[in-house]
Amino acid sequence: xxxxxxxxxxxxxxxxxxxxxxxWQTQRLSWKERILADIDARISAAPVALPLRPxxxxxxxxxxxxxxxxxxxxxxxxxxxxxxGPGYRIIAPFETEGRRxxxxxxxxGIEDHTTSRALGPMELSGNLHWxxxxxxYTPEPDLKENIWFARDVPALAEALGTEPVLLIARNVTDPGxxxxxxxxxxxxxxxxxxxxxxxxxxxxxxxxxxxxxxxxRARPESETA
Length: 225
Prior knowledge:
Keywords: Cell membrane, Membrane, Transmembrane, Transmembrane helix. This protein is α+β, with helices and mostly antiparallel strands and 225 residues long.
């Protein structure tokens, strides 16, 4: 009897813990979906003028429209695009109203990163962004080959002589470049998968608990038969 009681309490504790974890992930899913909805609304809002002092937090994803001149001196950043493969994001300096900022013009294939691209007067629209792509595994830029491995905005700004401000273009700035505009699809949201995993484990735990309880009760009966 004591053994059955122990198995029952142990099973209920484990089942309750796993259900609680699944419920927590469900709550996190709702929270994340609200954040993504807010980001989508911000990304697709009407564009405004470039702020005088853009803030990396307050102005992240801010839609901006500006006119100016695309300058020479681009930097290719190595990336991989789903269903396309490896290539480069082209980061270039852009001058507007006496200011110089960075512009992510979009994606080109591996073989096209040294191709000459359109420069001069342009009208741009896009979203401000400060990507967080640097970690302890990110290689240093290959300055000899002019290849970077992350959009490190402060470092790129220093290299190209601009403000530490990056506009990710939504419109085409050259026929050979495919824009890669900001989208919330690139923000991880795995909470549904985690919730399903925890609830699935809870179901397995309940089944195993029931099996062990049945086996424990059946054993004395077989011994007395």
